[in-house]
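Q: Given only this backbone (122 positions), what sequence would you predict?
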C-alpha cells in the first residue's frame, strides 16, 4: 500500500491498539495487576489499588496528547508487542490474575494491531 491509504490503514490499527490497551487497563484494575507491579512494596490492597489507578490519569493524558506523533505511534505499537511478551513471561506467576481468554484477547489484540501498524509503516 502506498500514499494516503496506507497511512489511514496504519492509523486505524494504531488507534484500535490504543483501544485494546486502554480496555486491558480496565481489566488490569479488576484483576489487581498492581500485585505484579508493586511486588515487595509495603502497600495494602486499597493503597495499591488507588496508586495503580490514579497513575493512569497522567499516563492516559500523555498518551492522548502524544497520539498524533508518528514517532509516538511507532513507540506505542512496539510497546504493545513487547507488553504482550512480558505478560507471556509472567503468565504462570501466582499473583497473575490475567491468565484467562478475555484478558489475553485484550493483550493480544493490542499486540496484533501494534504489529500490523509497524508492518505497514516500516
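A: Predicted residues:
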Amino acid at each position: 500500500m502506498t500514499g494516503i491509504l496506507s497511512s489511514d490503514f496504519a492509523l486505524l490499527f494504531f488507534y484500535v491498539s490504543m483501544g485494546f490497551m486502554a480496555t486491558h487497563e480496565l481489566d488490569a484494575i479488576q484483576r489487581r495487576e498492581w500485585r505484579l507491579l508493586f511486588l515487595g512494596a509495603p502497600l495494602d490492597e486499597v493503597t495499591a489499588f488507588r496508586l495503580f489507578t490514579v497513575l493512569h490519569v497522567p499516563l492516559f493524558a500523555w498518551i492522548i496528547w502524544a497520539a498524533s506523533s508518528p514517532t509516538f505511534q511507532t513507540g506505542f505499537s512496539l510497546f504493545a508487542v513487547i507488553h504482550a511478551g512480558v505478560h507471556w513471561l509472567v503468565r504462570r506467576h501466582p499473583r497473575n490474575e490475567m491468565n484467562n481468554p478475555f484478558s489475553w484477547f485484550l493483550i493480544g489484540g493490542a499486540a496484533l494491531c501494534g504489529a500490523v501498524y509497524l508492518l505497514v509503516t516500516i
